[in-house]
Design goal:
The protein has two helices and ten strands; from the N terminus they run αβαβββββββββ. The chain has about 180 residues and is of the alpha+beta class. Strands 1, 2, 3, 4, 5, 6, 7, 8, 9 and 10 form a ten-stranded antiparallel sheet that branches. Strand 7 and strand 8 form a beta hairpin. The longest helix is centred in the first third of the chain and has 37 residues, at about 1-40. The chain is globular, with a radius of gyration of 20 Å. The protein starts with a helix and ends with a strand.
Length: about 180
């Protein structure tokens, strides 16, 4: 009988904690909705997930600390996606294989884009409580298709697919500019 009382008290205490979590989520959901309405936000990634071509790099010992070929730590690496009005600035490190073309000596091998995308679509999925943003940008002959998922807890998932490189994904957070 005593065990039953202890278990019931524990369940009640956990139930009280849940309501506080729901309030925080509501505040974060409102903040995210305001950023989407204002069209002004910044995404910073904490992890990169290359799809191929990093095993050779891993064998050289050049990956950042706390990284492996499938998950690269970006905490000490400058990176962002900034949206201000209709304009987007993007600077993301790239780990993977270039399929054609390529950078010459001294060229930056990161993904750097700036301007107004040729395509930009935003949708909100009420059931999943997330925004999906798709935009397309071009740099010289290379075309980048970027899909961004923004979640109500202010986290983000970004997937970049290029005509010249293997795909790469990023995970991070969003904040107001």
């Amino acid at each position: 009988m005593r065990v039953l009382v202890v278990v019931l008290c524990g369940v009640l205490l956990l139930g009280c904690k849940t309501s506080k979590d729901l309030e925080t989520s509501a505040a974060q959901k409102k903040a995210l909705a305001e950023m989407m309405e204002d069209k002004s936000y910044e995404i910073t990634s904490k992890l990169a997930f290359p799809t191929e071509g990093v095993i050779t790099l891993a064998n050289t010992g050049l990956l950042p600390r706390d990284s492996n070929p499938s998950s690269i730590n970006l905490l000490n690496t400058s990176n962002y996606i900034k949206k201000s009005g209709d304009s987007i600035r993007l600077d993301l490190p790239y780990f993977g294989t270039r399929r054609m073309g390529g950078a010459g000596y001294g060229d930056d091998n990161s993904i750097m884009l700036e301007g107004i995308p040729s395509t930009y679509k935003t949708t909100y999925n009420e059931k999943k409580q997330r925004y999906k943003i798709f935009f397309r940008m071009r740099k010289k002959q290379e075309i980048f298709n970027v899909t961004v998922y923004l979640f109500s807890n202010l986290t983000s998932d970004v997937r970049v697919v290029s005509t010249h490189r293997s795909p790469i994904s990023y995970r991070g957070s969003i904040k107001e500019i």
